[in-house]
Specification:
The chain has 144 residues and is mainly alpha-helical. The protein is built from five helices and three strands; from the N terminus they run βααββααα. Helix 1 packs across helix 2 and helix 3 packs across helix 4. The longest helix is centred in the C-terminal third of the chain and has 49 residues.
Length: 144
């Protein structure tokens, strides 16, 4: 594969991009940044935040704890202090499984579309085709 064909991955993501990734409000991401010391986005002179892949991974964990499991902010902080490595490993597994699910869903959709296309393109043979097939078959039997 040529270098041009490789998909370039971003090093930094804006707060708007991060919020969209996780279906959160920008203010929510900003609040979590103030509450959780593991979130440390880079800031430029204007104060714009730029999140790294590590920050995004940490936001994924925080969102899982707060939005999915129902932890309070304080409860999530405690959980992160106690076993952050285990949580990160679990989130990697969950993310991998989500990717597999997405791939399989796309594959199923493509297969379903392919089957519909084949049915739509299939037409019953006309009488001439059937007659030619019968003649060919009959000639093959007689030649033996």
């Amino acid at each position: 594969m040529l270098d041009e064909e490789k998909q370039t991955e971003k090093v930094y993501y804006t707060i708007g991009e991060v919020a969209a990734m996780f279906d959160l409000n920008v203010s929510n991401v900003r609040y979590w940044e103030n509450e959780f010391d593991i979130l440390m986005p880079k800031k430029n002179a204007k104060g714009d935040r730029f999140f790294t892949k590590k920050d995004i991974s940490n936001i994924r964990i925080i969102k899982e704890l707060i939005k999915e499991r129902g932890y309070t902010i304080e409860g999530a902080k405690i959980k992160l202090r106690e076993n952050r490595d285990e949580l990160q490993e679990r989130m990697k597994i969950i993310h991998s499984l989500e990717n597999v699910k997405s791939f399989l869903t796309q594959m199923k959709s493509q297969l379903d579309n392919s089957a519909v296309d084949k049915k739509a393109n299939f037409s019953a043979p006309d009488s001439n085709t059937l007659l030619q097939t019968e003649i060919t078959f009959t000639q093959t039997e007689n030649s033996e």
